[in-house]
Structures are given as C-alpha cells and as structure tokens.
Amino acid sequence: MLEVEVAGIKLKNPTILASGILGTTGASLRRVAMAGAGAVVSKSAGNEARVGHRNPTVIEVPQGLLNAVGLSNCGIDEMAGELEIAREAGVPVIASVYGFSVDDYVRAAGALDSYADAIELNLSCPNVERAGNFFGKSPELAFEAVREVKRKVKVPVFAKLTAEAGDIAEIAKACEEAKADAIVAINTIKAMSINIDARRPVLGNKVGGISGKCIKSIAVRCVYEIASEVSIPVIGCGGILTGEDALEFIMAGAEAVQIGTGVLLRGISVFRKVSLEMKEFMEEREFELEDIRGVALR
Question: pTM of the predicted model, to two decimals?
Fold first, then answer.
C-alpha cells in the first residue's frame, strides 16, 4: 500500500530522512533505516571538511527549529566510508552534497557516486564566482550545476530547492531541463530569533534557517507549484510530523516526503508512526496513494 518508486529507486514507504539530522555517520543513518525510514539522506558534505558556525547552532522556537550549523561536515572522503556503512541497512542511501562553485558540486558528487543510490544537490549555497548569487535562486546557475553533475555521475540526481527563490517553479523547470531526476522542496527558510533579555540574536551566526511545522504551508505551496510545472518526481520536505501531513504533500503532487525536525519532536520512530498513520487514514477511506497523488492539481 505504501511502496513508491522515485526516479527508479524503490522505497518500502514514502518517508525519507531529510539531510541534516542523524546523517553524519553511517551508524546513525543505518539506525534510522532500521527504525522504518524508506530511504535516508546523509548530511551535506563538501570537498573539504568544514567546522561550521560557532555555538549556539540550533535552538527550538515555537512550531519549529532554528539552526545555523554552517555546513559543518567531515568532507567527502570520510563521508564515502560512512555511506558504505549506511547501505548495510538495505534501504536506499542518498548522498547530499554542497558547493560554492559548479566544479565543487561536480567533484563532490563524483566522489560519492559509487557509494550512494542517488545524489542530492543542496542548492541553497552562494556561488563564490558570482558574488551574491545563489544556486537555488538562479535558473541559470541551478541548470549549470545539475547539468554538469549529471554528466559526471551515473546515479539519479535530485535537486533540493529553497522557497526563497523568486519563482521556485522556474528553478525546478531549469533543473528538469538539465536532466535532474527529481526535485526536493523545500530547504529551511532564512530566519532569526532574539533573546530579549540579552538583547542579542540567539544563534552564534545571528541568522539561521527555520524548519518544522511553521514552514509546512509554505512547503506545500511550493510542492504544488512545482508539480504543476514539471513531469519529474517531487519530494516534499518541511514540517511533516504526521501521516496527515505527509498525505497533504502527496495530494499536492509529491511522490514521497522527507522528515527532519519531526525526528527530534516525535523520536526516531517517526517514520514508522507516519507510515502507520498514512496507512490507517487510507484504509478508513478505502483509497491508495495513486488515487490521491496530485489530486489537488486536478
């Protein structure tokens, strides 16, 4: 009832661990897989290890989490070994990579190509060669990054987009034209919280990205707009805590969903819980996923 296929990759259920949480080590990825996730995405890795921003990097806010980790990661060489461990769990493993130039993306994706079932491009990064321009906000840059990575790797390539793009559907179409195999929407949204006693921003980096329930409606809108314009699969991400949340994304046109903040709020069993809640809802109303996928678009 819950089996899905995304870009030729078969998932036992449509819940996927989003990049950023429990994705640093192969052991943690394997643990999530064994806890019921249909697939797992590693934490974004770059060509070199990166320390990231100073603490505090993550805080809880009403209806969500605010983080400014700063792309801290172990680098692609170490990540390759972690992905090998993760694959022992028997579910699809997706390697997330980031870059500050097209060549960065190509090198990172190429290095992890043989260790993953798919590559996810974190396009919410600035292009250092074109100051002030972000890959996820520029159709031209997104197209170039996806096209060059597709030329390099053999596995499917997913493009993860930001809601901060002026027209996210336009970015998605550019990625599709560049032969992306799927779109992931959305990443965290730029935000800030201030401690009114200290009179200072709470995060060490001052500004961070917000995730969780507070961005769900924005994410659903983005998935709806993207699914209206592209023919490749869309994976919804943002504020998914329950089976009903997941079904809302499916109705907006998503093939599957990614869960990140939900792991912290409902525990590692959130994948099994969401899958069960989806199944119960569907059984009560006597329909299958295919009956409702994209129904809101009709």
Answer: 0.96
